Each structure stands twice: as structure tokens, then as C-alpha cells.
Amino acid sequence: MQSIYHSLLDSRSTIRLLTLHPAQASLEESDTPVLTCTLRTVSLLESPSYVALSYTWGNSTTSQIIHINGEPVPVGENLAAALSHIRKPDRLITLWVDAVCINQEDNLERSHQVSIMAVIYSKAEYVVAWLGVAADHSDKAMDLYSTIGTQSIEAGILDLRGNDLRNLANPGEDERLSRIKHSLDAYAQEADLVLFDESLTALSKREYWTRTWIVQELTVAQHVMLMCGSKTLPFRTFSGASNFCGYARTRRANNITPDQWKDPVQGPDLQASMARAPSAAPNIIVGIRRRYQEETGDRESFYGLLKRTCFAYPARDPLKATKSIDKIYGLLGLDPGTNQLGLYPDYDKTPNEAYMATTRALIADGQINILAWSQKHKNIQDLASWVPDFSSAIYPPCGENDLTGSTEAIYNASGQESVSIIPNENPNVIGLRGILIDTIDCVGAPWIPTLQEPYNYDGAKSYFDDIANFCKFEWERGPKLDQDTKKWVEGTWRIPCADQEGKYSGRDRASPTIHGAFLEVKQPNARYIRPSKARLNYMKVLQSLHDRRSFSSKEGYVGLAPAHSKSGDIICILFGADFPFIIREAVKGQYELVGEAFVYGIMDGEGLELGKEVEEIFLI
Description:
Layout: E1 14-20, E2 36-43, E3 51-54, E4 63-68, E5 71-76, H1 77-86, E6 93-96, H2 98-101, H3 107-115, H4 117-123, E7 126-132, H5 138-155, H6 164-167, H7 175-191, H8 198-204, H9 213-219, E8 224-228, E9 231-234, H10 235-255, H11 258-262, H12 266-275, H13 281-292, H14 302-310, H15 326-332, H16 337-340, H17 351-364, E10 421-422, E11 430-447, H18 457-477, H19 485-494, E12 500-503, E13 506-509, H20 514-522, H21 533-544, E14 548-553, E15 558-562, E16 570-574, E17 581-587, E18 590-596, E19 598-599, E20 615-619
Parallel strand pairs: 2-4, 3-6, 3-7, 7-8, 18-20
Antiparallel strand pairs: 1-2, 1-6, 4-5, 8-9, 10-11, 11-14, 11-16, 11-20, 12-13, 14-15, 15-19, 16-17, 17-18
């Protein structure tokens, strides 16, 4: 394959384009029609006309031969299928296809070309998003998406801006939102079970939607055309359908009563239809594209994009990349600010080096909460304790608002202090200024919700009891904290939920009304009683507190720490962070990061008023 490539004179502005020749044999005449192409070099400065292809590389062990400049070249089966469907019967079509137009054996060229891929896709006449060959009734799904998209756009789904979608459930006196809600609700009632068709679910769960690279490819494009088999659909129409389906299904789920759910006649059908819920992954792409095109608000930052693509949720896995390093590089082109951070694609780096450089750059930019993304489950075993493994599933931090577009912080543990990095020559070590608060004395039983069992009543009882016992003991012991009885009584219900309550627009500090929900969920027979909305809210917050365990400290603090925390671990506040962290001394003066923490009584800057010395904390 090397013979078809010549060195690009300027790989930052010069690209190769693939011209696909008309079919020599139709698909009906041959199962394996010959794909004949010409590869040439052009300058982007000359504004060449081309169509960019967005697709999945697929299984690298199987390939098909195409002919480029007279040479047989193996390409992936999915790419060959895409070219076969895109090829015109009677004219040439010029494409940009990453697997062919970039010399994948040349790391320097690949790094340079990847750094301008946002430009390549944005300058294309349009982008073809190849979902794959027709299967699982995909023709029906494409037709349904077309109908639903057209109708929902007419109803106003794409007229929603900024926080409109979050406020749509309760528009209040907003006449515009009320009018849109009325139209959408009317169409939702009309469409009803069509929205739960299995073909829609199958199309939304195609491998294509799991790729990190498609975020950039579809977001920067002027125009996007979805293609599945021989069916095509404008992305704008798909966006309307995707957003509307999400809204309508949520609306339907909220209208189902517990009695209907358990009814022997209605129940099975309702449960089956809700179980067919499509993947939320396409909606993530739709949202990012609409914000980037400034249809719904400001563009997403690199940090926000990482949140959207790396976090694991019950209804959506994080996006994937064939090369784990592309979990980072696939997003850089969407935020010009990454250049100022000194982040560029470099395929001579290992994933370990790329992840470390990215984390350090984001911390220097003030995003120190990213340390909470470094969690115990890692695919790359030799990563420094403070570096997240972007190739593995990252669970949303318990102390950070999980709504990616929200800038509202739940806590303010470090007050007005900003991130302060201590220079050092070891790239595996990061030095940060902060204060050491206390040492963990006792720990309670782990609280570990799972997808299979998001809320375990027996586990919750142990969790509540441990916290109540810690609060009672520390209050009776006469801690250095204030001995306000009301505060410690409130601690028994505020600490289990990390002093949070859920809202449609994210999470916020718990209000006194949550106390009633706590008492309700604590009842011995709670699992058999129809839950109130407040109780469901409380349980939902507990489900989001992944891998936690309660603790009490030597000086009398009670809180929540990572499930693998133990006696002797240290509570600290790192300047600039919204919440405290747990660290563990590894060698004299150096620490391993254990994870984020909730410490009752110091979540709003109180820890800075304790008179403790500022420390230089080196994480390894």
C-alpha cells in the first residue's frame, strides 16, 4: 500500500482526495463489483470540491480489495460497502476518506492530518454519515425517522434554545414554550407506540453511534446526509426526530402510574415498550452539533466534550475509539482553545503519555475537578493515580453537576482559592497546593449501586445505619466541630445523599423537604410501598453516588469517600477544587490519589478557616 503514497509537501494544508469511478458492474450483476479509484494531492487553500465520508472502520481482520491508481489496496469491509453504495452509476465522485487519504503508516503525517481534520470536514461540500448496510428493518426506521422528524420540526422541536428543553416540562408563563409544548404533546399522543418501534431502537444502537471521531466529523460539517443501505436522510430531519423521540418517551414514562405498570393486562406491554428504549448516543451528537453551530447556545469546551463522550450512564456507554489515544485526539479540533493548552495530536506518544499531558493541561487551565475522573477501574494499569483512564468507563463524579451543559457548582470546598501547580521535572508527578484536613479513622460498609441493582434496600439500610452511628458517636464524643444538635440530626439524612437533591436541570444542594423522602425510604417495608416523587428523587441521587462508603475521621468529621478508602487515608482540600479529595501516603511527601470525597461541614470553604498550613501535595 506504501506505493500509492508520496510525501505531502505540507501536510498541514495539503490533503489527498479519492476519486471514485462509475460502476463497471452494477450491484445486481455482481456480488463483488470492482471499486476503481484515483488518489491525488490537492491544497485546501485552493478550495477543492469533495464529499467527506464518516464511517466506522469495523473489524480490522477482514478486508476487501479496491483498486487505487491501478494498485490493489485492502480496505475494511464496511468502507468497501460504503464506497459501493456512494458510487454513482454514470459520473465521478470525489471523496475524502481517512483510511485511504492519510498514510496510516506515517505517524508524523497522521498527526498533522488529524490536527486539520476539523478543517477537512468543515470545508467538505457535505458529509455522508454511513451507518452501514441495510439490516434489522433499517429501511423502515429511516422512513419513520423522516416522518417523525418532519412532523416534530413543524411542531417546533428545533425552535428550542439553550435551557428550553430542560424547562419544557414546566414552561410556566412562557407563552412561546407553552405553545411548543402543546404542539409537541399533541404529536406525541398521535405518534405514541410508533416511537417505540424496534427498528428505531436498532438503528440508534448501531456501532456507528459509538465512535468518538463522529463527534467532530458531524459537528463541524456544513451539511450532513445520513445513509443506511440505499436510504438517505438529512441530518437536520434526524435531529428533530431524535430530540422529539427522547422528549416523547420521557413524557410517556412519567405518565405511567405504578398501577398501570403492575397491571396484568397493560403492564407487560408497557414494560416491553419501555425496554425497547433507543440508545441516547445519537442525541449526544445532535446536542453537540447544534451547540457548535450556535443554534442552541455557546459551543462546548474541550472539558465539556470529554464529559459528554467519556462518562458512562445507565442508558449510554461512553464513546469508543479503535486507538485509545483518539479518545482525546478525536475532540481537539472542536475547541480552538486546546491549542493554547498545548494539546496537539501526536501519534508518537503512548496513550499513557497523552492522557497525562491532557490531564495536566486541563488542571493548569483550572479544571482540577478532573481528578475525580481518576477512578479505581482502569484498563491502563501503569497510569499515575491522578490521571484518568479515558479508554475505560468513567462514572460522573459524585460532587460535580452531571448535566454537562451546567456551570452550576454544587459545592465550593476551596472557597476563593484557585488552582496552584508546583513545578517539578517528573512528568509522572503533579504538585498541587492545598491543605491536609484530617485522617480517616473508621469506615462503613461500601455503597455500590449497579446497573443490575441500582438500589439495594438491604445495602441502603446498612449505609444509613453506619452514617447514623458515626453522627451519634461524633456528637457524643464532643468533636472539634460545632456541637449543634440540629446539625448532627440533619447529618443523618444529608450525608447519605451527599447533601444533594436531583432536579430536571441537574443536581443541587438538598432542601429540608428531602428529610421526608429520607424517612420514607428508610421505612422497613419501603420496597412494597408506592414511592412519592420526593422519595424517587432521593433514591435517584443515591444511585448516582457510585462506589462510596461512609467514614468518620480522627477529629470528628463524617462523610463519604471512595469504596476502596481505608483507615489512615488523608482528607485534603486541593486549591481550586469544588470538593475535597482522599489521598494515601505512598512515600515520604508523595501521595496516591484515592478519589473525591464529601465531608460534612467543610463543603463551602469552612476548611480554609481552620488555620491549617498550606501544603505542597505531590501526587504520583
